[in-house]
Every structure is written in structure tokens, then in C-alpha cells.
Amino acid sequence: MGRTVQLAVACVAVLVVTVGHVKAETLTFDELVTAVTDPIPNGYGGFQWNNFAFACRDFILSQYAGTGYDNGMVSTPNIAYNENGNPAAFSSDTPFTLNGAYLTGAWNNGLQIIVDGLVNDSVVYSRTVVVDTTSPTWFDFNFQNVTKVNFTSSGGTPAHGNDFGYQIIMDNLKVNEIVPEPSALIGLLSMGIVGLGLAWWRRKRLG
């Protein structure tokens, strides 16, 4: 084959490898290091984090044993939470799927959490879930091809005396990169095949 044809074949091969790439990941927050609490650093898990922090088990046991901070821990030693109970989000320039997460109320039983999946600041998915402080609950979201996920919490009744708030405990967040639909793959491969045909025709014409 001539160089043009070889290049076209190489491009088709690259398209196949790129389109078929999948990266699934469970974010446990456990590899983050703090003695108390700290904001989740931007770049963790490939995301930008807004108003999400993480806390370590030793601090939780010394200050908040028996609350949702303690009961919501799925894997040790850390959990994530929305600071001051305010809305929080994570985002990426690259589309991703929110598969699911374990969620717990820190202070309130019956805490309502609105989870929105956005693309370019437009809401394309929205689901409201309800959690208690006694144990973590797994929720399947399956928000596909989103670039941002917002969490907004409210309501519920205090479960720990006079202490109350809208803090969400989150652990073992599962996300993955997007694989294009089969139609997209077929389109890309068709482009490569057309390129091969043009290269062959030009080579034949030039003799």
C-alpha cells in the first residue's frame, strides 16, 4: 500500500481504539488526606468540585459519633459532604455518566435531595431522593452524557436533639466515561472507509 492508504488505515484503527475506550471508577475519597476536614481538591477523580468537602473517620468519631457522618461511611476512612448544607456540585469538561452513589442525611431524617444532571448548564436529568441518618442508601441515577451534577438538600426532621442541618453524606460515588452510541461508531468507521476508497482511487488514477 502507498503511504496515503497506510495513513487512512491507521486513522481507522485509532478511531476504533478511541471510541471503544471506557473508564469506570468508584470515588471513595479515602485516599485524600486530612486530620479534620478539607475541601475536596479540584482534579480529584478528574472533576472540578464546588462546595464538597471530606472528613476523616477519627475526627468524625471524636465529634459526631452516631450521626449520619458516622453512619453514612461505606468505606474508611473518609466521607464527602456538602459544606454548611448548601448546594454542591462536581463537573467535568468531558461528558461522563453518574451511575450512582451512597447517600445519607447528616442530621435530618427524611432529608430530601434534588440531584440534577446538566449539560452546558441545562438540566437534562432531575431526581429527588429521601434519606435518613441511620444508614447509607444506594441510589442508581444513570445520568448519561452529563458535564455537571448538582446536589440540593432540604427538609426532614432533626434526629439528634437540637442539632439539625441539610448536610448530605456521600460515599463510594460511581462514575464512568461515555462510550459513543453505535451509530456514532458506524459513522466514524464509514468516514475511514470513504477515506480508504478515495486514497485507492487517487493512487489508481495517478497510475
Task: Record the SSE blueprint.
Elements: H1 3-19, E1 24-27, E2 37-39, E3 48-50, E4 52-56, H2 57-63, H3 68-71, E5 78-82, E6 88-105, E7 108-109, E8 111-119, E9 122-131, E10 137-154, E11 157-158, E12 168-177, H4 182-206
Antiparallel strand pairs: 1-12, 2-4, 3-6, 4-5, 5-12, 6-10, 6-12, 7-11, 8-9, 8-10
Describe what this molecule looks like in 3D.
The protein contains four helices and twelve strands, in the order αββββααββββββββα. The chain is an alpha+beta fold and 207 residues long. The strands form two sheets. Strands 1, 2, 3, 4, 5, 6, 8, 9, 10 and 12 form a ten-stranded antiparallel sheet that branches. The longest helix has 25 residues, at 182-206. The protein folds into two domains: 1-21 and 180-207; 23-178, Sandwich (Jelly Rolls), CATH 2.60.120.1350. Helix 1 (3-19) packs antiparallel against helix 4 (182-206). Mean pLDDT is 84; it is low at 1-20. It is globular and about 40 Å long.
